[in-house]
Amino acid sequence: MRRREFITLIGGAATAWPLAARAQQKPMPVIGYLSARTPGDSVELLAEFRRGLAETDFVEGQNVAIEYRWLEGHNDRLQEMVADLVRRRVAVIVVPNNTASALAAKAATQTIPIVFNIGSDPVAMGLVATISHPGKNATGLTMQQTAVTAKRLELLHELVPTASTIAMLVNPNRR
Length: 175
What we know:
Blueprint: H1 3-23, E1 30-35, H2 43-55, E2 65-70, H3 78-87, E3 92-96, H4 99-108, E4 114-118, E5 138-142, H5 146-159
Parallel strand pairs: 1-2, 1-3, 3-4, 4-5
Helix pairs in contact: 3-4
C-alpha cells in the first residue's frame, strides 16, 4: 500500500467514524406522562415536573421525550391510554394525582417503572408492598391525609369550640 492510499484510507475512516458513532447512540428515552386532568389544568404541575427533570439533566426535546396522555376526566379511556404507553415501550410511566391511573398502569405492566403521586395509601391500594420497600416496578409519593385528620379536627375544635356539627364532603368514587 502506498503512502497516498494509506492517507486516503485513514482520512475516509476518520470522516465515517463520527457518522457510525452517531448511528450507534442510544435512542432518546421516552417518559409516559398519564394525567387525569387537562393540559390547561396542569400548567404549574408540568412546569415543576420539567424543572425536576432539568435538575437531573433531562431536558424535554434535547435528551428526553415525553409522551403525554390526558384523560381530561374521561376515566373510560384509561385502559386504552395505558395500553398505548406500554405498547410504545416508554422508559417510565409518570402518574400525577390519580390512584386509578396508577393502578391501571401497574395492572398493564410489571416491567416498566411507574412513578406515582397519589392521595391514598399505596399499600392499602395494592400499588406497593410497603412504604419503605415498595418492591416490583411501582414507587412514588403519597399525600395521604388520614394520619393528620384527627389533628385537623382537634385544631378546628380549638378554633371554633362552640361548633356542634362539622360537615365533610367526600367523593366516594375517587380512589
